[in-house]
Amino acid sequence: MKQLDAVQAALRAEHATVYGYGVVGGRVDEDRKKEAREAYDAHRARRDTLRRAVRDLGGEPEPAAAAYALPFAVPDGAAAVRLAAELEDRLAGVYADLVRASEGARRRDAAGALREAAIRSTRWKGSGVAFPGLPELGASEAAPPAPSGSPSGAPSASPSGTGAPGTL
User: Fold this and answer.
1) Phi, psi for residue 69 in degrees, rounded to 5
2) What is this structure's pTM?
3) CB neighbours (10 Å) of residue 147?
């Protein structure tokens, strides 16, 4: 994967994650709203940084979709917590790809973003995985491993950037 492609995929993933945290914030229980807001703000900042990175690499930053299809219904606080963890897990996969495609400062930044996504996911779920962003190396779960960035293996514009726009 070329570095520009990996940065664009990370940008698409951050667009979707910002959207997803809008849903999380609207459904999560009051005791976790602050956590959701902090994550939302962090992802907006990272998205803006990625826009600049795409331009620095000579590309045109891809815009956010008007809306994104959620991976499951989010009718309550418990589902909102699951969505937040899912967003972070998917994002970790995208940042693992960016780590592989980058060098120097961009690689360090991508590794930091991967670490932050893993920490947030662990906080939302209450447990973590051995190799965040690399489900094929993590603990076995009910579903077979999927390519990094796509925990379900289903096509997805976000975070892996491989599917139709507007999907989480």
Assistant:
1) -75, 130
2) 0.79
3) 13
Identity at 162, one-letter amino acid code: T
* H or E element that contains 42: helix 33-56
Mean pLDDT of 158-165: 44
pLDDT at 1: 74
Select from 145, 20, 144 the least CA-distant residue to 79: 20
Mean pLDDT calculated for residue range 149-155: 35
d(C-alpha 103, C-alpha 110), whole Å: 10
Closest listed residue to residue 117, CA positions, set 164, 140, 143, 149: 149
Q: What does the block give as tokens for 147?
A: 């390519």
Q: Tens digits of per-residue pLDDT, 32-59?
A: 999 999 999 999 999 999 999 999 999 9
Q: If you count them, how many residues does the chain have?
A: 168
Distances from the Cα of 66 to the Cα of 14, 97, 165, angstroms: 14, 25, 9
Tell me the residue type at 141.
E
